[in-house]
Specification:
Layout lengths: L1 H19 L3 H13 L5 H34 L3 H9 L3
Helix pairs in contact: 1-3, 2-3
Length: about 90
């Protein structure tokens, strides 16, 4: 079972990392600046916070899906059920 759960985590970590993108660290820094003050143009603040909120919501959806699939794996009684659940990941 731990191996199946790792596969689920790997699947969703790839999706979350793709969502965050290659500039995730830069966006995180800009978000902190927007939240706590920093070297931003005033007009950028609301846009940065809105995009960060959208990203947070998208990540939350993926995490909810991940947790739901892992719960189903834990409830599975047979390897056939486990393989069927893992097959849904694509």
């Amino acid at each position: 079972m731990p191996q199946a759960e790792r596969k689920v985590d790997e699947h969703f970590s790839k999706q979350i990392n793709a969502l965050i993108g290659p500039f995730g660290v830069l966006h995180a820094v800009k978000r902190l600046q927007a939240e706590f003050g920093g070297a931003l143009v005033d007009g950028d603040r609301e846009d940065i916070l809105a995009r960060a909120a959208e990203q947070d919501a998208a990540i939350a959806i993926l995490d909810k899906q991940r947790r739901g699939i892992k719960a189903r794996l834990r409830a599975a009684k047979t390897s056939i059920e486990i393989n069927a659940i893992l097959g849904e990941l694509g």
